[in-house]
Amino acid sequence: MRKVVAIVGRPGSGKSTVAEFLVGQGFKRFGLGDICREEAAVRGNMKPTRMDLQNIGDSLRKKFGNSILSERVWEKIEVGSADLVIVEGSRHPGDIKFLQDKADKFLCLALLVSPEIRYKRVIDRGLSQDPREWEKFLEFDRRDAADLDNPNGQSTEAVIALADYKIDAALPEEKVFERVEEVLKKEGII
Predict the structure, then answer these.
(1) Sheet architecture: strand order including 105-112
(2) How far is CA 40 from the centre of its chain?
(3) Which of 128-132, 168-172, 173-177 has the lowest mean pLDDT?
(4) What domains, with CATH codes, occur in the chain?
(5) What tens digit of pLDDT does each residue of 112-166 get?
(6) Nearest CA among 146, 34, 161, 156 for reference residue 92
(7) Which residue among 11, 55, 72, 180 is the one 20 to 30 A from 42 at the CA level?
(8) Which of 39, 142, 16, 146 is nearest to 86 (CA)?
(9) Cα–Cα distance between 176 and 182 in angstroms, integer?
(10) Burial status of residue 93 (CB atoms within 10 A of its CB: 0-12, 13-18, 19 or more)
(11) What is the largest CA-CA distance in the chain?
(12) Model confidence at 76, in pLDDT bands (50, 70, 90)?
């Protein structure tokens, strides 16, 4: 039985941190952003910015449909033999709906954190692709929340609205991990 947990949230909300914790609990991790990074490399962009990755995701959804990133991740999931799977970083409801239909058991967890804390986390992680200035972060963050001019664009707020559980990820890391583990046990995932 394949159990899939989608971890969603705005930039800097702690998705990768929670995913790594679950990898330590025996889950196999797949990231939708990895699909965009692979596509960037195919297009010759070896150091894509966050905006580049957003544009690539948008163009893939426009060309192949709003669940394309999850479809490509699912191909990788099927190659492996993992029964416990994390899919990190869904940014469009089409991805969530696809995963719900494919998984034997599906759960979506949204991580919620204020913009100020997320910005500090983005700065602290120091990835070259992340915006470094507050205004650039806000611009990127607004587009991530909902690109209202683009039906194939980012729509993380709509994805968060679909989540089965919303977790306060501003809490200390260990408290967030405890809450995630509690939810997964309650739902029969672990």
Answers:
(1) 28-31, 84-88, 3-9, 105-112, 165-168
(2) 18
(3) 128-132
(4) 3-186 (3.40.50.300)
(5) 999 999 999 999 988 887 888 999 999 989 988 998 888 899 999 999 999 999 9
(6) 156
(7) 11
(8) 16
(9) 10
(10) middle
(11) 45
(12) very high
Name the token pair of 19: 């995913």
Plot region of 18 (φ>0 → left; ψ -120 to 50 → alpha; else → beta): alpha
Distance from C-alpha of 131 to C-alpha of 177, rounded to nearest angstrom: 27
Residues in the chain: 190
Angle at 34 between CA 137 and CA 175, to 5 degrees: 65
In a 13 Å sphere around the CA of 160, the CA atoms on its Cβ side amount to 19
For the chain, the DSSP string reads: --EEEEEEESTTSSHHHHHHHHHTTT-EEEEHHHHHHHHHHHTT-SS--HHHHHHHHHHHHHHH-TTHHHHHHHHHHHHS--SEEEEE---SHHHHHHHHHH-SEEEEEEEE--HHHHHHHHHHHT-TTS--SHHHHHHHHHHHH--TT-TTS--HHHHHHH-SEEEETTS-HHHHHHHHHHHHHHTT--
